[in-house]
Amino acid sequence: MENATLAMEKESRLLLFPETEDGFDIDNLSCHDRLSKAQLSIRLREEEHNQSIPHLHSPTAWMALYADRYTCGEGGIIPAHGDLTFTILLFNPDSAGNPLEHFSAEEAGLHSFYCLLILAYFVASCIYIQPLWMALRKGGPMHTVLKVLSTALALQGISALFNYIHLARYARDGVGIPIMGSLAEFCDMVSQVSMLYMLLSLCVGWTLSKNRKPQSRPLQWDSSPASKALAMGGVATQGALLLWEQYEETEHHSYHAQRSIAGLLLISLRIILALLLASVLYTIISTERSALKRDFYLSFAKGCFIWFLCHPVLVLLSVVFNEHQREKVVTIGVILCQAISVVILYQLFLSRSLYWEVSSLSSVSLPLTMSRGGRGRY
């Protein structure tokens, strides 16, 4: 507070009201009732004053009102005093009682989550980087898919690292590094659109290739003008909605509890894309005779649906949680679900790529095959 003498002369004080009481509406109270119903009244007498708020079992929003001897017209004629300037700093103690953690109730726990996520990415990369690199160098029918999956996963890891750096600084100064939060959102957006382009291109390409050349090199990325046009249209629409959503949201989170029009449109788009992929995959599976290929397509459908539907489902389920928990539930849930989706697709394409590569050549190049021309000889 800049002018403590003036504050004492005016008998200035801050009135704090917790927004927990059912039916409590401060706008409907008279001036005197507002003064009398305040749970805390802090008198402004010194340049710096510390006030502890009673412990509450759950995070609570507080409303602060300024009052002095002239507030309800009881002090007579209001003298021509200058303005009284003061700053309020609120500190939320963490579970250990440390009051210098700057995280709000909506953000508490995200820092630890990103730390564990980065650790998991590091351990997984140490274990699987060599076999993945060998699979990428070898090539094969699944080579392009594996490159897109690796790029999307790397971008998710970089996004988690940038979020961790931003929140680590935010814990100390309450400001953080906003550019890191923006870079994290950008990396996640690029990962989202690359995965969308791959999934749409694969599904539409498989559908178009079923009638054109069903026997040639199955299950690879078979691009065509129609599949490219559909994939690019979906990518452009989702990219525009992601940019619109990030422009409207001020907090640095890649996923939100969708309180904006852009967020609701983005959820609608993901549901529509999931229905489109479901119809395409149903057409493929219903006409496929090979049980092994049907199992391949079903596993692929599982990974697709987890990727697209986890966000809408988690937003819907988040309404059962308290308001301060919804953002965290959506953010953590979507990141984990999409990581599971990528793992499912990795496992699917890595385990099946060699089989399809060999089986497509077996009828003409491998010995001791059960081809029609040789059945009588073996």
TrEMBL record:
InterPro entries: GPR180-like_N, GPR180/TMEM145, GPR180/TMEM145_TM
UniProt topology in membrane: Multi-pass membrane protein
Annotated GO biological process: G protein-coupled receptor signaling pathway; response to pheromone
Main localization category: membrane
Domain GPR180/TMEM145 transmembrane: 118-345
Annotated GO CC locations: membrane
Transmembrane segments: 111-133, 145-165, 261-285, 305-322, 329-349
Domain GPR180-like N-terminal stretches: 1-73
Signal peptide bounds: none
A Pfam match: GPR180-TMEM145_TM
Keywords associated with the record: Glycoprotein, Membrane, Transmembrane, Transmembrane helix
UniProt xrefs under PANTHER family: INTEGRAL MEMBRANE PROTEIN GPR180, INTIMAL THICKNESS RECEPTOR-RELATED
Protein name: G protein-coupled receptor 180
The organism's taxonomic lineage, starting at the top: Eukaryota, Metazoa, Chordata, Craniata, Vertebrata
